[in-house]
TrEMBL record:
The keyword Ubl conjugation does not apply. This is Enoyl-CoA hydratase/isomerase family protein. It comes from Variovorax dokdonensis. Belongs to the enoyl-CoA hydratase/isomerase family. It holds the Pfam family ECH_1. It comes from the Bacteria. The lineage of its organism: Bacteria, Pseudomonadati, Pseudomonadota, Betaproteobacteria, Burkholderiales. Keywords: Lyase.
Length: 251
């Protein structure tokens, strides 16, 4: 796991190249730690999540599985604390998260991508969760996350039939914002994240908080009470003032 910073933009790189960035237990713990650190950074405006060496993430590192998966207590600890702890830290990120998806995006990769707000992928990407071939189901919290993100039909096919789908299918399902030639994905992700980082940061955080609350079942009425506290903020005044003065706002 690597973290790089470029001002208000953070880049998180999943790194296990010999195994196409398959997630080890240590990588799950590192992913959680990285996002918990980023989530406390008031300067942060956007995060890119990507994989090392031309692949996003090929799933879990199966070479570790015999060491813990056959014991109920250890398996529970793995999914409920280690995996979900990392995914929850991503879901808790208060700023937009952009997924730069290249190559393999399988199993754990689909879960990690499902935690992102914007997903941009290459034409050669493949998506799935073929764990039926490994003899186990997806953990309930993880299945609910994937089902919400990719849609019910694709989620069921991925888990029941070990279905693997191309980027165009995921684009039409609403999972991907853009599908580009593989060579263009990295630049497009940086450009998109950079655009987000130049726009109103407080507004982005407020929109992210609204989407997060709605995903967790909050009613609209509960959100309205504090929805307009930004009225007298400098950011609000700058955005409207810049438009009226026909200049670029300075956020």
């Amino acid at each position: 796991m690597r973290l790089a910073r470029d001002g208000a933009l953070a880049i998180v790189t999943l790194s296990n190249p010999p195994r196409l960035n398959a997630m080890t237990r240590g990588m799950w713990l590192a992913l959680r730690a990285v996002f918990e650190s980023l989530n406390a950074d008031a300067r942060l405006r956007c995060v890119i999540v990507r994989g090392d060496g031309g692949n996003f993430c090929a799933g879990g590192d199966i070479s570790e599985y015999p060491g813990f998966r056959y014991d109920t207590a250890q398996l529970t600890q793995f999914h409920e604390a280690e995996v979900w702890g990392a995914l929850q830290a991503m879901l808790d990120c208060p700023v937009p998260v952009v997924a730069q998806i290249e190559g393999a995006c399988m199993g754990a990769g689909v879960e990690i991508a499902s935690c992102c707000d914007i997903r941009i992928a290459g034409t050669s990407c493949r998506f799935g969760a073929p764990i039926a071939k490994l003899g186990f189901p997806m953990a309930p919290r993880e299945a609910a996350l994937v089902q919400r993100a990719v849609g019910d039909v694709l989620a069921r096919d991925m888990l029941f039939a070990a279905g693997v789908h191309d980027a165009q299918r995921l684009y039409h399902a609403g999972f991907l914002l853009r599908v580009l030639p593989d060579a263009d994905v990295a630049a497009a992700a940086v450009e998109h994240a950079g655009k987000i980082a130049t726009l109103a940061p407080r507004a982005a955080r407020a929109n992210k908080a609204t989407f997060t609350a709605l995903a967790r079942g909050a009613g609209i009425d509960a959100l309205v009470a504090d929805a307009y506290a930004y009225a007298d903020t400098l950011e609000h005044r700058e955005g409207i003032g810049a438009f009226l003065e026909k200049r670029t706002p300075r956020f």
